[in-house]
Structure formats: structure tokens, C-alpha cells
Amino acid sequence: MRKCLRILAWVVAGLLLVAGIAVxxxxxxxxxxxxxxxxxxxxxxxxxxxxxxxxxxxxxxxxSQAQVAGRWQQTFTAxxxxxxxxxxxxxxxxxxxxxxxxxxxxxxxxxxxxIEPDGITxxxxxxxxxxxxxxLWLKVDAxxxxxxxxxxxxxxxxxxxxxxxxxxxxxxxSEALAHAKCPARAxxxxxxxxxxxxxxxxxxxxxxxxxxxxLRLSDGKIEVAGTTKRR
Length: 231
Known about the structure:
7-stranded antiparallel beta sheet, about 35% strand
């Protein structure tokens, strides 16, 4: 009888040890910070402010050009985007609507981007509560459809080093776009969730249509170009 109880105790102790190791590994993976995020989140505040200002100027210039019939183009760098994410998005401006500023909830801490030829990586810190903060990151393909829609195909989602369910990520992203009053619809490509964004008409009476025909990614840069025409 004692021998059976001893064996049972060993089995229980073994299971508890395995469970303890699993929990430890889970929290370690959850709190893993990708190397790329370490690099982009650390920045000189002075340089971030200058980059944010340049991002603002280029955005205003692009918006102004797109309001007039003709050809337009603009290039943004990851440094400018990250500068705006670090500094500019919290500043009030008549050129940026509250909906756009609210596109990124305050619960997403220190959002940053990495732009590469094969896609864009989006990352931020997120407070899970009792489990502490984790780094959420998405690997996204950005391209244009034949109908000139902007397609964002989510290839990968992680919380630290742990895979995150794409359907949940897709739902949250769709909700954020809807909150920003962005004309978007959901789709799928080979099982990957895709958000399709169309550009609304512009002009005082919506008499101008925008057609985006270039969306090009390179190391640290994104180039957009297109035309504005009267209906």
C-alpha cells in the first residue's frame, strides 16, 4: 500500500513539475521581445520629433495634391512613420481628424513599424493584466488589387513568441478601421485574413475620384502614387 502511495506521489510530483515548466516556458515565450522591436522602439526623442514633423509635412502635402485633379506621388520612410507613432499621434492638429488619431487605441503601447520589400511588420506593447506586458506583432503583405484597393494580408501574428489566432487579430483590426470610419471590407486569400481598403471620393461635393496605382515597398521606405480625376 505504501509503495503504491509512493509511486502515486512521484507521478503527481512529476506532473506538477511538468506543469510548472510548461507555465514557465509559456510566460517566457509570452514576454519574449523580438530583436527588431528592441531596435525600433529605442530612439532619440529629438530625432523622433524631427521625423514626426517630416511625416506630418509629407502627409499634408500628399493630401493637398490628391484633392486636385492630376498625378501625385509621395514616399514615406519607416523612421518618419515611427517618429509620428512615438510623438506626433498624441499631438493635436487640425490636419488630422480625431478618428485617425483614434485608429490606434491607447491600450497599444509604443507602436512601431518595420518596412521591408516583402512586407510590413507592425508591433506594439500590450498590457495583458496579471500576465504583464507582451509584444504583439503582425507580419503583413501590403499590395494593390486590380480594383485599386489597398490589400493588407495578415501572414503571421504573435504575442511575444506565441502564435496569436489570426481570426481574433482580424476582428480587432476590422473594428479599428470601422472606428476610424475607413471604408474597408473583409476577405481571405488561401486562409489568410485580408483587409481591403478603398479610397473615398474627394472634393467639396465628392466630384473627384482617387486611383492609387503604385504601392511599392523597399528597405525602410514605402512609395505611393496615383491620379485624381473628375467623375
